[in-house]
Amino acid sequence: MSTIESGAAHRVMARCGRVITRHPWPVIAAWLLLTVTVATLVLAFGRPVDEDATLPGSAGQHGRDLLEAHLDGADNANGQVILRSAGERLDDPAVAAAITRTVDRIRGVPHVDSVGAPVLGADGRTGYLDVTLDVGPQELTRAMTEDVMDAAGTPGLETLPGGALTRAQPSTGHSELIGVTVALAVLVVAFGGLVAAALPLVTAAIVLVVGIGAIGLAGHLTGVPSVATTLGTMIGLGVGIDYALFLITRYRALLARGRDVRDAVTETVASSGSAIVFAGGTVVVALCGLGVAGVPILTTLGWTSGLVVVIAVGAATTLLPALLTLLGARVDALPVRRARTGSASGWGRLADRVIRHPWRYALTSGALLLVLAAPTLAMTLGQTDAGDRPASSAERAGYDAMAAAFGPGINGPLTVVAELSPAATGPGDPRLAALTGAAAGVPGVARANPARLAPDGQVASVRVIPDTAPSDPVTLDTAGRLAALDVPGAAVSVTGQTAVRGELADRVADRMPPVIVVVVLLSGLLVLVAFRAPVVAAKAAAMNLLSVAAAYGALTAVFQWGWGAELIGLDGPVPIEAYVPMMLFALLFGLSMDYEVFLLTAVREHWERTGDNRRAVRDGLAETGVVITSAALIMVCVFASFVLGDEPVIKMMGLGLAVAITVDATVIRGLLVPAVMTLLGAANWWTPRRRAAAVMPERAA
C-alpha cells in the first residue's frame, strides 16, 4: 500500500506509529481494559432494544404522542399469548377453567401489569390473551418474555407468542461462526501462515465486543432496534478483518524488503494506516449523511454502524501495530503455503489485458452492470411483518394462527385517535359512538372496538382491525380513509406500527434524492482531499453508484419478485423494508470507497514514480488485486452468512451488501476502473494547482 496524498495525515500517523512501537504493552493493556469494561457492563446491565418505529412530525406519531400523554400505560409493551386447541373448544368448561388458572399464573409474573379476558376466534379452538407489561418496549427483555410464556403453558393447549412477546434479539451466532470460519480460510490462503491469519480475527473479536457492547449499552439511553446490533456485527466482522488484512500485507512486504521491525510498523501505520483512516472516514461520513432523511431509525442505524467502523479503525491503527511490534518477524510463523503475488499473479495478467483493450472492457463491464441494475426500476418500498418469517419460527406460527382465527388484520391493528374539543364529560358522550360507528363503516375495516376515553376526556381512541395484513399496501389505503374521518368536535389521526411505518416509507421515498446528493458529495470530497484529483473523485463516485444500483437490482429480483427466495429461507416474495435501500446506499457507498482508496493509492504511487498512466494502472491493479480480492471475499462471506438468519430485513442487508461488494471488487475494481483510468490517461490526475504534474509526459511501460 502506498501513501495517499496527505502529508499532514502521513506525519500524524507516523508519529502515532513511533509511539506505539516504543510502548506496545500499554496500548494492548488499554484495549484489553476497554474490552473487559464494556463486556462487564453489558453482563451487568444487559442490551435493551426498542423495535417501535418513531417518525417525528408524522400524523401517526402525533396520534401516538396523544395516547402516551393522556392514557396511562399507553406506551407500555403489549403482547398476546395465543392459545390453540387441537380438540376441545376453548369455551369447554374444563378448558376454560385451565385457561383461568393460566391467566392467574401470568398475572403473577414480574412486570406483568394486566392480562385481558380470553378472546375466542370463530372456530372456538383458537384464542388469545392480551398481556400488558409495566415496562416500555425499550426495557422489555428476553427473560421477561420467556417468563410470561413459561407461565402460559397450559396442559392440552398449544401456546404461542404474539406482539411484544415475540420481540427478542435475533440470534446470529451461526452466521458469525460461518463468517469467521470462511475468513480464517481466506486469510490462511492470502498470508500462507497461521499466525498472520489469526491476527485479523483477534482484532475483529475485540472490535465486536467493544462495538456491539457499546451499541447495547446505548440502548439504555435511547431507542436502539435489534437490527442495529446485527448490522453492527456484520460491519464489525467485515471491516475489522479487512483493515487488519491491509495493514499486515503492507507490514510483511516491508519486512521482506529488509526493513527493521519498528521501522516497518511505523511505515505501515503511516502509509496503510493513513489509507485506512481515510477509508473508514468515507464510511462514517456516508453514514452521517443519513441524518438528512429525518428518519430516527436510519439515524440510529447510521451512528451505531459508524461507531463500529470508528472502533475498527482505532483497533487497526493502534492495537494491531502493537501486536506486530511484539511479534516482529514471527508474524510469518507456522507457514502452511506460499502465495503468489505481484506482477506475475493472475491480477497482473488481467491488468495487461485490460490496458491493451480498455474500450472493450469498459463497454462490456458497463453493460453487465446496467443489466444487474435494471430491476431497480421496478423497486417499491413496503414493510415486512411476522408473516414473512420462516414457517418454522414461533413468531410465524403465532401470526398464522391469529390470521386464521381472526382475519389477517388482527396482526396489524390501527388505532384511530381523536382530540375532543370540548372535552368529553363521560363515556356517554355521543361523539364516542359516532367515532366508533364511522370507523366501523370505512371500507377495508373488519371491525372496530368501542371507543376508549382518556380520564381527562380530551382524547378518545378506537382500535380498528382491517381486512388485510399489515404488509398489504391496501392496509395503508384503509389507514388513509380512517384519517379522513369527519366527526364533529373530534380531530382524527391514525396511529399504530402499520400506519407509522407506512408514513416512514413515504418519507424515505421523499428524502432519498437529497440523501444521495449529500452522501455522494461528502464521500467525493474526502476522495478529493485524499488525492487532490477532481477527475478521480468524480469517477469514484460514479463507480460506487453502479455497485449500489447492482445491489438494488438484486434486492428487487430476490425479495420483491421472489427469484430464488426459497434458496435463502423465504416462502416467496416479501416487501422490501422501506429504510433498507437508503441504509444500504450510505453503507455501500462508504465500503466501496474503501477499495477505491486502496487501489488508487497504489496507482497514484506508481504514477508519481513513473509518470506513465498505463503502467501506473497496470502495476497498481497487479499490486493490490490479491489483497483487495481477499478482503472482498472475506467481507462477502461475512455478509452472505447473515442471509441464513430468520429476519427478512437482515437477509436484505446481507444479500445487498454481499452482491455489491462482489460486483465492486470484481467487475468494477478489476475491469471498469482500470479500463476507464486507462482511457482518461493523464487527465486522471489533473488538478488546478498542479497542472504541470497532471500533464507529465508518459513513458513507455
UniProtKB/TrEMBL annotation:
Q: How does it sit in the membrane?
A: Multi-pass membrane protein
Say which domain of life the source belongs to: Bacteria
PROSITE patterns in alphabetical order: SSD
Q: Which InterPro entries match?
A: MMPL_dom (IPR004869), Mycobact_MmpL (IPR050545), SSD (IPR000731)
Any Pfam family the entry gives: MMPL
Keywords of this entry: Cell membrane, Membrane, Transmembrane, Transmembrane helix
SUPFAM superfamilies the record matches: Multidrug efflux transporter AcrB transmembrane domain
Localisation: Cell membrane
> PANTHER family recorded for this chain?
MEMBRANE PROTEIN MJ1562-RELATED (PTHR33406), MEMBRANE PROTEIN YDFJ (PTHR33406:SF13)
Give residue ranges for domain SSD.
201-326
Query: Which protein is depicted?
Result: RND superfamily putative drug exporter
Q: What is the protein's major site of localization?
A: membrane
Q: Which GO terms describe its cellular component?
A: plasma membrane
Q: Where are the transmembrane segments?
A: 25-46, 177-196, 201-221, 227-248, 269-295, 307-329, 359-381, 512-531, 543-563, 583-603, 624-645, 657-682
Statement: the UniProt record of this protein carries the keyword Transmembrane: yes
